[in-house]
Batch of 4 targets.
Target 1
Amino acid sequence: QEAHAAELERTFIAIKPDGVQRGLISEIVSRFERKGYKLVAIKLIVPSKEFAQKHYHDLKDRPFFNGLCDFLSSGPVLAMVWEGEGVIKYGRKLIGATDPQKSEPGTIRGDLAIVVVRNIIHGSDGPETAKDEIALWFEPKELVSYTSNAEKWIY
Ligand code: RTP
């Protein structure tokens, strides 16, 4: 019963403007919920272009950087923090490969997207980026710590 006592990791997940506009919020949120991960923060925001540039600063030298930042700031984004054992790596697995042409059926991008510039979702790619992205998008007080009754049946 003590398996869940270990520090549970957190990751930053965002549904991009295309996913929000297509009405895919509940579909995507439910995949993380059903897996057993716990939602600890959520908000709908339209990021400014400057904010998008901060979020994607690692990609600033890529040719698609400007278009990508225009896209992310083009409409509402659903920003979330999900918690659970291995959620950073497994969250990326649920999301699927960056290019939806290469992501497997059963993954979010594999099932719901067709092209890389409209791949509907973002997920942190490692513990460092998860930490940085959570801090960029959320204030500490927006992260909600709570016990869910399901946890003792998941861990
Ligand atoms: P993400 O950060 O959004 O989860 O995506 P990722 O790690 O799987 O992919 P990354 O290489 O970090 O690229 C970030 C986002 O940039 C867009 N992209 N556009 N035009 C292009 O060729 C191109 N390549 C990538 C995608 O929206 C990708 O998710």
Target 2
Amino acid sequence: MSNITVCARFRPLSSKEKKDSRDNICISSLNSESFVFKEEKEECTFSFDKVFYEESMQADVYEFLALPIVKDAVKGVNGTIITYGQTGAGKTYSVEGTSILECDEQKKGLLPRVVDGLFECIKSADELTKYTVKLSMVEIYMEKVRDLLDLTKDNIQIKENKMQEILLSGVTEITISNPEGALQSLSTEMNVGSSRSHCVYILTVQLESTTDKRVKTGKVILVDLAGSEKVEKSGAEGKVLEEAKTINKSLSALGNVINALTCGPSARSSHIPFRDSKLTRILQDALGGNSRTVLLCCCSPSPSNALETLSTLRFGTRAKHIKASPLVSCREDRHAKKHGDITLTKDESCDRIL
Ligand code: ADP
Ligand code: MG
């Protein structure tokens, strides 16, 4: 069984898309787990653990995919939430909201809700445990890890300790004592994040038993990935091309790791390629260990973005590793071959989706 929950989220059409697209949107809902995706004359059906349509609220997304992770974190269990999709698909909106100090309660994203949720859970927890919440924030740009809480640390090394835990060597960790404090710290560095880098937020909950002094930790990691879009071969040059290649490589590495992990024991290779990118290395504990992982595939509903949306949905489908589902039509397969798929190299032995 896969330990990955895969969800899809469609944002509302942007005003530009509303003007551009003659026919309105390229999906039609079947239920809260499945929808039909239409592209030109072709149609195929996708199924996920949950589909959030354009009218879905930030609170719905939080409750379904983050609240269980928050509840586990205060018990010392790790969890990771990853947002995937092309630039403009709603990744940052899902993670942060429109601004981290969002006054509009409804628009608050996952990150501020997770912070609130952690402190809520701690408030109602037993008194035999002393809780400490810490926050770190890094970005991965051109395969370099930069500390977003101290920009002078621009080449953080990833190390493994004796317990085989992944560590960001020397990264700034601030202890936060209430949600407001966390949000203040986050907001000061929030503008630094770019759609060409992966942004990683790490909330660590330390649980110290007041009786025997034993310490456990639970981590919640939120990842706002760089845009997954393909860069036009003709247009991209120099820095933009280099950025695109690096992003492509790390997203492929993520796909390969997810693929290796979600294959059944018979097909699973003993080697999981965590070391192929900084992104997968940082997520090694989260993905490989006994933790909950949620992949939120963010999509535009516009026909003008249909090919990128298809690529995102296919990434999600592979992560879920749905066994030959009658819902996934074979026409979708032809599409993928025609348009290529930047996100995963194929491992026939465990590719049972198609
Ligand atoms: P990404 O981070 O994937 O590049 P953004 O999160 O910045 O994309 O979203 C692009 C635009 O769409 C932003 O203006 C954002 O506020 C808006 N948007 C994204 N998702 C939603 C949503 N579910 N509801 C309303 N607006 C959204
Ligand atoms: Mg973004």
Target 3
Amino acid sequence: MSEEDFTRLVEAEQRVEPRDWMPDGYRRTLIRQIAQHAHSEIIGMQPEANWISRAPSLRRKAILLAKVQDEAGHGLYLYAATETLGADREDLTTKLVEGRQKYSSIFNYPTLTFADVGVVGWLVDGAAICNQVPLCRTSYGPYARAMIRICKEESFHQRQGYELLMTMMRGTQAQRRMVQDAVNRWWWPSLMMFGPSDTESSNTEQSMAWRIKRHTNDELRQKFVDMSVPQAEALGVTFPDPELRWNAERGHHDFGEIDWDEFWSVVGGNGPCNEQRVAHRRKAHEDGQWVRDAAAAYASKRAEVVA
Ligand code: 3HC
């Protein structure tokens, strides 16, 4: 198959499968994006796991346990998708802990109160849903299929977060203040999850041509803002953006300028929790070496017995 044939197949909305010919660049871009997506799911377990042992009730603890466990499953699903492209999971983990591959900037912010657990569910998983539902139509088959199940679980994540906040907003003045404080800290980093503006995005044009991405960063960010404003009104909170207002002409909400210096500084490893997150992941990987060695020893013994 030639690159033109491949482009025609993708433009005809056909799925590319692991055994199909594909341009090296397409394979590389997919491994990069899916691996970083998987890293984000695994690192993303840390901020909320911080509250499992301190949840205010057994119900909240059970919900949070289920959510964090889902994130682990999403990561494993996505690493499995990278393996269909010839990537090696151990190599990807090494790249992550050595800072040679990225994970989503959002997970480098601290979860300071239990209201953060609700806001992460509502805004971070809400942003993830905006960004990931279109990926159910991405051109690479294994990635698209993985996203269908992941998106179903993300909607549980988003709903449980919003319900947690609804409960707190019906609580004491102190609880309402905790929720608004968390919203103030997480709103702008949630907008940054969608990546740089389209004019600054080095990958969007090619990813859109290959139907890996179905919408641009700015299109999805705008969708998320438009979706979140009525939810904030129903909750009784405000977003920390004096320029946020409905623009009837555009049919969308206008909003203020994102602090791109902060974004690139966090992406570059200088966010509030980058060091802690990567060190924790590195230690978990090192502590698990004996499990991997035991599994490999068992597999080779079984192979001897079976042979
Ligand atoms: N954090 C860290 N790096 C980011 C970033 C972010 N929020 N946004 C962009 N970047 C990086 C890109 O990786 C790229 O660097 P690279 O070329 O070295 O990989 C560079 O900034 C330029 O950005 P582009 O827009 O050109 O990059 P992409 O085309 O890859 O778009 C993306 C970025 C929109 C995040 C896209 O990769 C994507 O849609 N990925 C799949 C979804 C995903 O990974 N979501 C992350 C959150 S997962 C999550 O939320 C889990 C949930 O359970 C909470």
Target 4
Amino acid sequence: KLAVVVLISGSGSNLQALIDQSLHGAIDVEIKAVISNKSDAYGLERAKSAGIPAHALSHKDFDSRDSFDNALQSLIDQYNPELVVLAGFMRILTEDFTRHYEGRMLNIHPSLLPKFKGLDTHKRAIEANEKEHGVSVHFVSAELDAGAVILQAKTNIEANDTPETLANKVHALEHKIYPLSVHWFAQKRLTFDNGKAFLDNKALPTTGI
Ligand code: GAR
């Protein structure tokens, strides 16, 4: 099974989707550890309930971004993961950190990248009068939310949608495409070469889930 470390900052519903699918054998993944930069993240409880080592490593205990990322890297690497999965991990990462995990770190971002990088994506999509919105899984690169896209899923924005209703719709999509992307990586069907993502040696992204 693919050894994975998951990084979170909050609720951890994407973590839960990965836990559920790995426990059911739907994906060939073993979550070795969960690390949160927030000690009160509910996702840490989800990890403990599943018997997964859960760590809180607060960025507030470090005096620079570099020192936090170094400590985070040391903690992650104690578990020798083949893949690092960012699941609602709300930290900007240093270039050194992203380079260390190049081609073996995924992120999920709640927009149809390259649109709406950064925060408040649902509100911004509504305010921009977008007809469609969605979510993207991508390899992590040094530039924020700019790594090679692997898989996207779309939903319509209806006239009565609010940032909250849209977030709920997007979350449901996330829980499908993130485990699937990780599964592809576990099966070695998903690869990374020279800044680009490939599925079965064909250039990604694939859209349409
Ligand atoms: C998800 O919607 C994820 O796409 C987003 O945070 C949420 C975490 O939810 N990630 C980002 O915004 C990354 N910049 P979860 O804790 O319930 O999985």
